[in-house]
Amino acid sequence: MVWWERAWRIAELRQRGDVLAAFVAACGGAERAWQARELAAEVCGLAYAGGDLDAAEDAVRTLQAWADDLADHPYRPGEPRPDAADRLTRDHFKDVLRETLTTPARDWMSGTRLSLDVHYQALCRARGLDPRIREDARYLYGRGTMALDLGHRAAAQREAARLRQLRETCVKW
């Protein structure tokens, strides 16, 4: 399994485990609530330490079974829609990714993000800018931030450079 596939799987397990554990802890008995919190911590711990994904998957399956025992509860979390599931997993993925990065890698991410923000904000504030240019700016900014979220250095820097070029071409001081 490639590192980013593993990181994505960890993010999926953490996200689902957190939701299920919170539900079971809130709606189950005191003993079950304690066990649910322990399982959620186990999923998080296994994922952080680069531990056994199978054990984390087993813990999430156990939490799912406990949630299924409360199937008639009005606040039982359902399966999220695919787009919502991806969005939630992406948020967890960013956390997982940042935890594994070295300090220099985090530094380039911060610098590239700052560059994207500065150029994008300058384009947003520019008066009389063609709507197509604004659309291009939003597109480039979105691609750049997505590349950062996924840890793709070359793509993020390429989009930051394209955004800078758009700013230099279109914004007159």
TrEMBL record:
Name this polypeptide is given: Uncharacterized protein
